[in-house]
Amino acid sequence: MNQSDERREAVQVSVDVVLLTLVEQQLHAVLLRRQAAPFAGVWALPGGFIHTDEDADAKASAARVLRTKVGIEGAYLEQLATFSGPARDPRGWSVAIAYCALLPVQNLPPDCADISVVPLSALPQLPFDHRAILDAALERVRSKSLYSSLPVHLCGETFTLPQLQQVYENILGEPLNKVSFRRKMDEMDWLEPVPGAMQGGGAHRPAQLYRAKPGFSQTLALTARGL
User: Fold this and answer.
1) pLDDT over 90 percentage in the chain
2) Which of the residues 1, 18, 93, 205 could staple to 5 if both were Cys, CB 3.0 to 4.6 A apart?
């Protein structure tokens, strides 16, 4: 094998995960402080090289990164896009398979010096091409929120319809018509009331609590029309 062949084989393959959550009705991203060069000490997206000896596929790599580096399991996880080229990493030509993950804020791990939950409106400068990856994830989440049940993965196990509508509005950045929203939820047919479960509304009458239907988990209930 000549030197040219060796250069062609020197491609790094990793996964990067945009982990989003809602804090006080604002979208936040979970960032990790990098421990090693390049960019040691800088806040970045959770990520790492694929472990060929233990990862069944790229999604398994992303799940492992979230489990071992952030301390969470069970987040909604979907593949976003592939980012590649010689300029994205100072170590050389690289490929990053990016994923988008959603998690209710109550499922985040306890505070840690090397984990930061940052509002999207106050992100620091990110290394590599992590800002482009994050922007692509945000565009994906907002786009899918127009026609799917994706935002439910930012909710807890149970929620009222007003709370669910608020989550949609927080993602989309605009108010939604209550009647149209509820009609759309009925059309998608992925919600069910929790029998006998109501949430007190203070001066208002108690509101019915809902949950995703069994088996929903990592699937999306899609419709042909937007909200």
Assistant:
1) 81
2) 1
